[in-house]
Amino acid sequence: MITAREAELVWHDLTPRLLEVRRVERLTPRMVRVTFGGEQLDGFCYGAPDDHVKVFFPEGGAELPVMPTLGEEGLEPPPPGAPLPIFRDYTVRYVRPAERELDIDFALHGHGPGGSWAAQATVGQKLGILGPRGSTVVPLTFDWYLLGADETALPALAAWLEQLPADARVIAFAEVADEQEEQPLAREIRWLHRSRGESLTTAILETAPPEGDGYVWVAGEATGLKPIRRYVRGTGHNRNWAEIDGYWKRGVVNLDHHEDDNE
Ligand SMILES: Cc1cc2nc3c(=O)[nH]c(=O)nc-3n(C[C@H](O)[C@H](O)[C@H](O)COP(=O)(O)OP(=O)(O)OC[C@H]3O[C@@H](n4cnc5c(N)ncnc54)[C@H](O)[C@@H]3O)c2cc1C
């Protein structure tokens, strides 16, 4: 039971799942949607727009990924000598339980196991997923929502826009490389193009919060989020009503923990 203005963290059982690629669709030049399917999706839990899973990729040339080792506390280091799993965090874009399908939108940035795998994704390949570990369920009753994302958080932003009530007041920004990276979304948002020198950081710092109680959700490159975090705090915004989450960090391989509001 959640009260009017309190986000609730709902925990889910952690089950590793091995899935097969069913479809691959290029959404834009630098974003690919991969549809995974399989019986192991039975019982999959999804509860919030930014729900995410750990995706386990095969080592170059291998057919199957090394799957996670789980203990009572969740993911554990593998036993000594065992091969290391290769995993990254990705947002659940859509789940279709009846079809036993799940979509993930991968940004193609040209490096890393995640970006490289997505660039060559082919029907029939197999990947592992683990999660979501939990869902942060935010009430849909705030007076306004300020949302911001770069490409990596665009899947979650798109889900936010679909899940908010039609009459909700929403100010939303998405920073992408250029015009070709824009996608159809459920609502009007302001697209920011790096090719024109625009950025999420500048756009949010120029946005005065509207009157009333609002919820702020912003995710993307960690360094660019720091001024946003300071700005939001400086406006006296209730800390429980803001989620500002580093999804990756320039120059850092696998930002294994999100950089969130407490940092
Ligand atoms: C909760 C959460 C949800 C996420 N959801 C998504 C999602 O739905 N779709 C998605 O594409 N990503 C998503 N990400 C981001 C993704 O996990 C990171 O971008 C991750 O680093 C990708 O792994 P990689 O193997 O491609 O690169 P890594 O091996 O981790 O990094 C290799 C190099 O690439 C750089 N790099 C990483 N990502 C990018 C990028 N986007 N652009 C430019 N350079 C980059 C790193 O700084 C590093 O120098 C999410 C992250 C989190 C924490």
Major sheet, described briefly?
7 strands, antiparallel
Alpha-beta content class: alpha/beta
Report, as a whole number of angstroms, the end-to-end distance: 29 Å
Q: Strand order across the biggest sheet?
A: 7-4-10-2-3-9-8
CATH topology of the largest domain: Elongation Factor Tu (Ef-tu), domain 3
Sketch the topology as an H/E string, one letter per element. EEEEEEEEEHEEEHEEHEHE
CATH architecture of the largest domain: Beta Barrel
CATH class category label of the largest domain: Mainly Beta
Topology:
Layout: E1 8-11, E2 16-28, E3 31-37, E4 52-57, E5 69-71, E6 74-76, E7 86-91, E8 94-96, E9 101-107, H1 112-120, E10 126-130, E11 134-137, E12 144-149, H2 154-163, E13 170-176, E14 190-193, H3 200-205, E15 214-221, H4 222-234, E16 242-248
Parallel strand pairs: 12-13, 12-15, 13-14, 15-16
Antiparallel strand pairs: 1-11, 2-3, 2-10, 3-9, 4-7, 4-10, 5-6, 8-9
The protein binds flavin-adenine dinucleotide.
Flavin-adenine dinucleotide is lined by residues 52, 88-91, 105-107, 109, 111-115, 151-152, 155, 247-254, 258.
Keywords:
single chain; about 260 residues; alpha/beta; Elongation Factor Tu (Ef-tu), domain 3; Rossmann fold; 2 domains; seven-stranded antiparallel β-sheet; five-stranded parallel β-sheet; 4 helices; 16 strands; binds flavin-adenine dinucleotide
Give a quick rundown of the structure.
The chain contains 4 helices and 16 strands. The chain is an alpha/beta fold.
